[in-house]
Amino acid sequence: MKITAKAWAKTNLHLGVGEAREDDFHELMTVFQTINLFDTVTLEMNESDMVTEGSVVKQLSVTGPRGVPEDASNLAWRAVDALVARRAESTPLPAVTIHINKGIPVAGGMAGGSADAAAALRAVDAWIGPFSEETLLDVAAALGSDVPFCLLGGTMRGTGRGEQLVDILTRGTLHWVVAVMAQGLSTPEVFKKYDELDVAPHMDIQDLSAALLTGNPESVAQHLHNDLAAAAFSLRPELRHIIRDGINAGALTGLVSGSGPTLVFLCASPESATDVADALIDAGQVFAAYTATGPAGSSAERGAHII
To answer: Is there a contact between 39 and 115 (Cβ–Cβ < 8 Å)?
Structure first.
């Protein structure tokens, strides 16, 4: 038996970072949006190998970029174990092999690991569920700050550490270029640098919310913001130059996605996005550049879902 689920990449249209809390997380005001880059997670159950205790996962493999853990530290593996632990029965289950097919940049600020966890939760729910949406979101939040959004998708405001979510109304489709760097950035390192820089937080999203409702990309571009950009630029100064190159090539604006180093450029049209992606590749400073749209998926497939 095999079950496959898909989950989209995310970017942050706004990321305001407040003070560090007692639990070492920062208070956030963010606007998430899915874009149509995705990972798939496949669970394959071996009925001839029944598991009575411990993890049901026996193996995990990854197709795609290097650097993704293939052991119990992988968020998808942890997600399977966490949701299995919530079932009412304690009967044996078949051993599970997980395979992840990566289309989301690794260590790039686009929630690739969180997307895998969300897809794994949907797959387990299809296998031994149904679980309530409340249970799925509770397990998701325990796994990581971005996992609940990856589970739900769309365009949402996130507060707390990003796990407290409310839908934001949007119109139209936004056209993006995703510029991927050859080397990732550590999220804890970026937050540490942010604290050192003592950046004034931007926690107001009213103007962005109004712009998203118009569906006008020029208006949206004026209100995109990321408090972590200064920290990412401090650690990787070349990112500033790449943003400049993208704007010179026709992008409305460019910004760091999440904790970086992936950059996203908002464009006025699909044709403009293609031109910007080509220009960034020709300049030779990025590992890859993809065109994408957001929010991703139909209303039924806006978050992690079975395929």
So the answer is: yes
d(CA 204, CA 210): 12
- CB-based contact 77:60 (threshold 8 Å): yes
Residue 5 assigned ligand-binding role: no
105 annotated to bind ligand = yes
Residue 144 labelled as part of a binding site: no
- Domains of the chain plus CATH, in order, are 2-167 (3.30.230.10), 174-294 (3.30.70.890)
**Tell me: the pLDDT tens digits for 35-94?**
999 999 999 999 999 999 999 999 999 999 888 999 999 999 999 999 999 998 889 999
Catalytic residue among 39, 125, 146, 245: 146
125: closest CA among 72, 82, 92, 167?
A: 82
Integer CA distances (angstroms), 135 to 131, 145, 219, 300, in order: 6, 16, 38, 20
Secondary-structure percent of the chain, ordered helix, strand, coil, rounded to 5: 35, 30, 35
pTM above 0.90, yes or no: yes
Query: Of the residues 10, 125, 227, 245, which is catalytic?
Result: 10
Active site residue 245: no
